[in-house]
Structure formats: C-alpha cells, structure tokens
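Forum: Protein Structure Q&A
Topic: Joint prediction for protein chains with partners

I've read a bunch of threads here and the consensus seems to be that you should model interacting components together rather than docking separate models afterwards. I'd like to see that in practice. Below is the full input, 633 residues plus whatever partners are listed. Could one of the regulars post the assembled result?
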Amino acid sequence: MIRFSNRRRGFMAALAAVLFTCHGWAQEAAIVIDDKVAGLIPISISGYTGEVDQTLKFDLEVAGFSLVSEDKARFILTGKNGTQVEGTLQDTSKRSILARAYPGGTPRLQAHTLADDVVQAVTGRPGIARSKIAFKHETGQRNGNNEMVSEIFVADYDGANAFQLTQDGTIARSPAWQPGHRTLFYTSFRPGRPCIYSHDLASGARSPISNFNGMNDGAAVSPDGTKMAMVLSKGGSPDIWVGNVDGSGLRQLTSTREAESSPCWSPDGRTLCFSSSEGGGTRLQLVDLNGGRMRPLSIGGLRGATEPDWSPDGKWIAFTRMGGGKNFELYRVAAAGGVAERIGEGEDPSWAPNSRTLAVIRRQGNVRKLSLLDAFTRQAKDVRTISGSCGQPSWAK
Amino acid sequence: MKRLLHVGFLGLLAALALASSGCKSRPKNITAIPGSEGRGGTSTDLTQGNPLPPTVGGGNTGGSSTGVPTPGPRYNPNTGGTGIDLPPVTNPGPGPDSDGNTALPPGNIRDGMREDTEMFRGNTVYFDYDKSAVKKSEVAKLAAVAEYLKANPNSKLEVAGHCDERGTEGYNLALGERRALSIRESLLNMGVSSANVTTVSFGEARPADPAQNDSAYAKNRRGEFILLTPIAAPVR
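Posted by a regular:
Agreed with the consensus. Here's the joint model:
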C-alpha cells in the first residue's frame, strides 16, 4: 500500500519534471539527484532474461528508478545477456549515453556492474550494486537454552551469495564492519555470555575483544578503522565506552543512571551519536571523543528515537522512532539537528556508502524482512532472496 | 563513609574470631588488640568495637582462602559467657559511584562456577511495559534470593534481563540490561555483596512465550536468576 502511494507520488514528480522540461528550464534538476529531489526516474529495460533481468531491475529500482514502458521512459536501457552482459543507455532523443559490454565474472556481477554504470551516468554518483551487507539471521529454531538462535551472515546487498559467518548455535547479534577492512565485529553468546568478537573474513579467524561481566554490545568501528565504540555495563549502567579495535585503551564516554545504546560515528571520527534513556523516554545524544558532556541532538521534539546511523557524507543521521507497540518509523535529520523527516516504515537503519540508500528491517507478522529504502524517493524494495527473519543490518563501507 | 564502616565491622569480627578462638600464635600482619590475647571473649566484648587495621581481612584463623568472606564465629561456651550466633557476614563489595551506579565485579564471574537455572525459577521478577523499576509486588521474590545469597556467601548470581518484542532491538538490549541492573541494585540494598552479582541482557532473544499477544508479552518482560555455585566445594 505504502509502496504504491510512494510510487504514485514518484510518478507525479516525474511528470512534473517533464512538464518543467517543456517550459524549457530545470532540465538538469530532473536528472541530477540531490537531497531535495524525490522523483523516481522512469526507465525502460529490454532485451534481458532470467537472473540478469531480475538483478538489473532490482538494482535500478533500489537506486530510485521506476520501471516503465519505453514510451513513458526518460532513459532507455537495451541490451542482451548470453556469454556476456551488454547494455546501451539512451535518453529520449535516442542520444547514446552509455554502451558497454561486461565479459568478466558471473552474469549476476555483470548485471550489477551495468546497473552501477547506469546509476553513475544518470545521477553522477557511484552505484551500490556491488556492495556487501552483514546482518543477523534467525532460522526460527530454538536451542537447549530456549534461545532464538541467531547467526551473523554476510551477503551481497541484495541478499544474494549469503554466507553464514558464525556457527555458534546461540545468540549472535549486532554485526558492524570495520571500515576499509574485511573484518566484522559482533556480539556472540558463544562463551555463555555476551562477548564482542573481531572476525577476519579473509582468514576466518576471530578474537574476543570485550567480555566483561554484564553487557558487551553495539560495537561500532570508527571510520578510520582504528577505534571501537561499544556499550558496556561493567560500571553498573549501560554506558558508551571507546577503545582501540583490539579492546585496549578503554575510556568511558558517558556516565548516566539510565541506558545508552547503538553508538555510531561521525565521518570525521570526532563525535559519537547514540540513543539514551536518561531523563525519560529515549532521545538521540552526541558526545565528543575528546570528552565533555553528552548533549542532545535536536530532532524537532520527536519522542522515542533510537538506533541512529550517521551517513558517510556526514549530512544525515537516520534513526528509528518507536511510536509505541510495534509501530516503528524511519526518520532522518540533518546531522546539525533540526526537524526530522519521516522516510518510511521499519527499524534499525544502516546507510549505504552512497549516503542515500538504507538497509532497514520491516516486520511482517512473525517475520522480519531485510529491506532497502531510498531516502531520496522513499521507495523501498524488500530483499526476497532470504527466508527467515533478519535483523541489525550493517552496510559495508 | 559507608565503606569505612564496613571495614570497621569486618575488623571487629576478625577481632572476635581471634579472641574467641584464643589463638596462641599470633598471625602475621595483625596488630594485637591490647589485652585481648589469650583471654576468652565475652559477649560484651562484641560491642566494644576496637577496630583493627584493614590488613586483618586475610588474617582469619580458619583455612579459608584470601578473599572468602569471614564467617561469623561461634561462641565457645567453655570460656564462659553466653554468646549467640552472629549472622553470616558477606563482604559488601564496592559501593555506588557518584552517579549511583555500582560497578559489576571484575573478571569472569562464571569461572569455576556451576550454573543452576532451576533454583530461583519461582522467583522470576516481572516488569511493566517499557519499565525497568522493580514493582512492589515483586520485592518478596527478591528478598528470598537475597537471603539465600547472604546465607551462602560462596554462591554468586547472574541476573538475566528480558524484554517483549515491542521495541527496537537496540533499545530492548539496553532495557533488558537496565532491568537486570535494577534487580541487582535491589539485591545489594538488601545486603548482598556487589562482588557476587552480575547481569546479562537477552533483549527479546529468549522469550518465555513466543506468541504475539499481551499475555505472552507480560511473561516475557522479566528478570531471571542464574545461581552460580563453586564447582569445587571448599574444604570444611
């Protein structure tokens, strides 16, 4: 329902763009995507089959395109797939924008690469179709301790090529990438209680980083890959701590009676944003790495803000608003604070490297689906290749 | 201040232990209380309160290892007087910091301990929606756990906090931990040693009832107790 109305709104915006074009101005604004333009870009795709066809269409819809027939399209992508994927992108005047063949890799990878080239050509920004995500996955099985068994998975951003990283048979949660490395940090109950591990994907080796009594959770690695923020309760309350990625040099950054959760880093590595229940309710707070008191991030008086994530370009903080019960809404607010805007339904947002797309979780009955939300157009695409419940996505950067 | 009083109290007990056992060879690192050596204590000595230096903690005459709380001495009737049994004493552990938070014990509290999830199954504490305060109706369950721990100072406890699914995962992890900590603080206020109680949050990952209705949610918002007992019982 929501998606339909979003689509329609997108279509109206696209129509408006076409009308503006007829008046002879704003032609660029219809194409160049900036943070204010919320229109889907109509594109037609023809000549592809099977997996390549599906992959291309998924990629381009996630990137903010709408799939239309050629007569309604602003861009026309034609090509074929066989031994290699080929693609030609034209605008409505049949001017060729892109013509390329993709001989290497799997058909799926070829399709992703073509999609990224289309996104780059149309929007001027790199695509995300070849990026990876990590997430928590529940099979629905319970172990001997009556725990909902969850394991950490790594997959292509569209859920394909999913790889099970942990085999702990207990609770594993809160995966977080170490930027610039093929390393994941996460919490596992493997030792019988929560322990934060650092797991090198290349070698498969993992090391325990933090296993104090109490809470060891919410690991978030700094953008330069050297420091780690996390939530520890060893001081008698869940507080934000920061240390080196090997667990050394720990410092306590917040000291409250209530609980802090979900720390994330500003791209310059100087500030952390997190959720705190200090003072009642939950709100977003900031604290500087160099110390000082935590200070609230203004989000225009919204209540129930949790799970912030800072966009890689530094402009936005996305977060989940708990609206009571199981009503979860996604918002984004300028990193300097201000009025937050609702961008969709779901929880636990994680920004893609393009600072535009978010991996989120949407509850559908008993199942929690991984979904990709375009913050510009509000278009959401569920990842359908994964059965069972997903949680806590973390987009590799 | 509170801590000083505890030290003083321990000192007093250690003095009692020395006095009542009538020890002949004075343990090292112990400053003798003038006039106390070789004399059987009387019950009135108990209240005189000559505090010993803090070094007496490890100097009790029993065979227990350093750091194990000193049990209250049984009065020896042969030396005269009519003493009474003192309640067992546990080391209260570090107290709260300036924020009111009492640090969890260092090290792995589970090392060398056996888990018992059955002992306090009937004492599971339930919480209101989105709340971490212990309700009055649940206090009696906590009191029973506290009494057991005070009477069995070698036992330790892990408090597990749980949530219903109506909250984000990040928030529920923190809420579960707050619930466990809230229970822990109640136990400490009842006299349980802070060195013997730790916490763990399961968030919404270990529901008592996986159904999605109010009755299930009420069962899932809870704090459970995992009793930890030494695998190798101390030699008595």
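The first strand of chain A starts at residue 41 and ends at 46.
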